[in-house]
């Protein structure tokens, strides 16, 4: 069940800023490509049960100008969840990318990962993750494609490994919060955007429609396992972090990954 008032917890000033930013900022700030279409030399791989930097099974590969996530060199999936991190952390930014969920799900991956992937934001540095840590402490913009049952399945949801967010006026205990997006089919390209304002407001946009807003991303919650306990300081607000593309058993393609930096004081001037 979805809360009755999606925006009741969002400060009015921030809401006005996001609306204004979405309409006017593209003419002011340049987009910076994060993916050059040729290689992933500016990215860092971390896959569960492997050391940072080991691209087990060539999970993340570049073909046809796309970052492709594949599992054809895997045996048993063995919870080898992976993430591909851009090398630089960010704080205030507008992220844009296109994704396409495709191919055959790895049959030994967990069932919840069918036609499921995402991009992590405000993630911990992959070099601080332990070898057997399954997920980074982060906030995920979850990507889902329709199943074959005809039921609605929104994309651009929020999931929270090792984190919490404020939604509808309170810290929401759910691991995932559904967005208001449409349902998209497998093999369909979808444009996903996130406007991230440090530790204040985060907005998810799918194919040009604002589908979810929440605030105060912070360390907390559960789901993440085998982390360094010194890093999991529950209640600590996340002001910045790494962006990471996810692999969890479902093939997916990414393209046109770019970012536009937002000045932290920009919205106070509007």
Automatic annotation (TrEMBL):
A Pfam short name: 3keto-disac_hyd
Keyword check for Transit peptide: no
Domain named 3-keto-alpha-glucoside-1,2-lyase/3-keto-2-hydroxy-glucal hydratase: residues: 30-260
GO MF terms, alphabetically ordered: hydrolase activity
Organism, scientific name: Flavihumibacter solisilvae
Keywords: Signal
Signal peptide: 1-25
Protein name: 3-keto-alpha-glucoside-1,2-lyase/3-keto-2-hydroxy-glucal hydratase domain-containing protein
């Amino acid at each position: 069940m979805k809360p009755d008032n999606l925006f009741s917890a969002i400060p009015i000033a921030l809401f006005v800023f996001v609306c204004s930013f979405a309409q006017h900022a593209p003419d002011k700030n340049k987009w910076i490509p994060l993916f050059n279409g040729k290689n992933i030399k500016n990215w860092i791989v971390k896959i569960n049960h492997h050391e940072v930097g080991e691209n087990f099974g060539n999970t993340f590969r570049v073909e046809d100008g796309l970052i492709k996530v594949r599992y054809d060199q895997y045996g048993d999936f063995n919870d080898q969840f992976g993430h591909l991190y851009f090398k630089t952390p960010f704080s205030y930014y507008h992220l844009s990318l296109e994704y396409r969920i495709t191919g055959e799900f790895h049959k030994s991956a967990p069932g919840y990962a069918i036609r499921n992937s995402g991009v992590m934001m405000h993630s911990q540095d992959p070099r601080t993750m332990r070898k057997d840590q399954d997920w980074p402490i982060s906030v995920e913009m979850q990507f889902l494609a329709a199943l074959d049952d005809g039921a609605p399945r929104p994309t651009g949801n929020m999931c929270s490994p090792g984190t919490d967010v404020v939604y509808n006026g309170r810290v929401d205990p759910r691991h995932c919060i559904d967005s208001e997006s449409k349902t998209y089919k497998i093999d369909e390209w979808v444009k996903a955007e996130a406007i991230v304002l440090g530790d204040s407001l985060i907005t998810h946009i799918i194919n040009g429609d604002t589908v979810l807003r929440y605030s105060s991303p912070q360390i907390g919650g559960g789901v993440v396992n085998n982390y360094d306990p010194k890093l999991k300081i529950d209640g600590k607000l996340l002001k910045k972090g790494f962006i990471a593309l996810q692999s969890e058993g479902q093939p997916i393609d990414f393209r046109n990954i770019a970012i536009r930096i937002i000045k932290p004081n920009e919205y106070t001037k509007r």
